[in-house]
Specification:
The chain has seven helices and no strands. It is mainly α and 132 residues long.
Length: 132
């Protein structure tokens, strides 16, 4: 995988966005609140609740989504390298990138994806009534 992040954030810790059991519990509590109070969000929130319920901290939603890792994240299983760019490392060639690829996320965009509300909005089955 190739992520476009600053060299200071080129660490496994940067991607481990659920670093403690308390953060994981807060995500589950948020989803429970959404399920109880916003019935029009229940189908999408239920899927997210299933996703979070198998995680154990420390966890990474990015690694869960891309590699189906449910945690805890063992930093010894990852090697982080810092290349000038994903392109210069050869990772944007056709053999690695699907035809639907548009671009890499910026570091700020990646950080903004860190939340239940954003994940809920990104689920294609989530209705406008849910996210309004």
């Amino acid at each position: 995988m190739c992520f476009n992040v600053s060299s200071a954030n080129c660490t496994t810790d940067f991607f481990t966005n659920i670093s403690t059991a308390a953060i994981l519990q807060k995500r589950n509590d948020d989803l429970t609140f959404i399920n109880i109070n916003y019935a029009n969000c229940s189908p999408s929130a239920g899927g997210l609740f299933a996703k979070y319920s198998v995680l154990s901290s420390p966890a990474s939603i990015a690694l869960k989504d891309f590699l189906n890792l449910n945690g805890p994240i063992d930093k010894n299983n990852f090697t982080v390298t810092n290349n000038k760019s994903c392109e210069s490392a050869g990772l944007l060639s056709q053999s690695f990138v699907s035809s639907q690829f548009v671009r890499l996320l910026t570091e700020d965009e990646f950080l903004k994806l860190n939340g239940v509300e954003v994940e809920l909005a990104l689920i294609s089955a989530t209705t406008n009534a849910c996210i309004a």
